[in-house]
Amino acid sequence: MSSAVLPHPRIAHSHKLGILFLISGLWTLSLLDTAGKLLALAGYHVVMIAWMRYTINLFFMAATLAPLYRRRHGRSILQSNRLGLQLGRGALLLGSTLIFFSVLKIVPLAEGTAMNFCAPLIVLAISPWLLGERSYVSRWIAVLIGFSGMLIVIRPSGDIPPYGVALGLISALTQALLSILNRKASQADNPMVTLFYGALVGSVASTLMVPFFWTSHTPSMVELAILVSTGITSTIGHFLQNTAYKHAEASVLTPFFYAQIISACGMGWLVFGQFPDSITVLGIAIICASGIGIAYIEHKRAHPLPPADPMELV
């Protein structure tokens, strides 16, 4: 008689830690999104918000990550095997941040986050052409189901204005392209190098841009604290996410990315008094279900069950 193979207790514990770190990181990043929305509504330009976010992020990384990387690997964190890729990824990351903060200025937090959840579905749709991956019927079914959920979220009778929908779709597309560049960067460099270049490019580029978008009024102590928090929450959130992958593989963690919708709904309700209606919740649930479903299918495809031992069937 065959029996299910249970994971080793240490592996199971490590996976639980990884999931805990991931969800903690995602919920911390929801604080970043909340701060960005607050500042945008207060009249701060998204370039100024991004500048503070990336500059503080770079400061923390230069003080902690760069020395740690040199001790571990004996070389500078600036040494990349594909510098052009890292610079391009950093530029796209900054652009993605600017677009998403613009989305959050006009779209509720939960709906804005949900639209970004369509990014993995876009990756599945374009991967046969950009990544040369084989196309499967299951992938296309997941894409169609996911986009049907998005259509429910952005339906004409909903609360999202047309330009908010357009920005949300552009944001999801940039997230999808960023995901593809992340894959390529992970094959070329250590994740620490990729994280550092993201902060470096974002900080340098936004520093060159911010004089043209500087807000004239002096920020209050509360606004200044919120501005500073964008860099802190960004640093902590991405650190926790990076730590999660040290305890569990991507196939284990991927379904739990959708836990961010819980924090997005919670922060949207607590801070802005916005909570999605029942129809929007249905659309969000469909998007999340399609993403989790394809993650499960892809995991099964990558890790097929071994053939049964004939002796066990006797």
Summarize the helices and strands and which ones pair or pack:
Layout: H1 9-41, H2 46-73, H3 83-106, H4 109-116, H5 119-130, H6 137-153, H7 162-188, H8 191-209, H9 221-247, H10 250-253, H11 260-272, H12 278-302
Helix pairs in contact: 1-3, 1-9, 1-11, 2-3, 2-8, 2-9, 3-7, 3-8, 4-11, 5-6, 5-7, 6-12
Can you walk through the features of this model?
With 314 residues, the protein is mainly alpha-helical. The chain is 75% helix and 0% strand. The chain is built from 12 helices and no strands. The chain is globular. The protein starts with 8 loop residues before the first helix and ends in a 12-residue tail after the last helix.
Keywords:
314 residues; 75% helix; globular; disordered N terminus; membrane; transmembrane helix; transmembrane
Briefly, what is this?
The chain is an all-alpha fold and 314 residues long. The chain has helices at 9-41, 46-73, 83-106, 109-116, 119-130, 137-153, 162-188, 191-209, 221-247, 250-253, 260-272, 278-302.
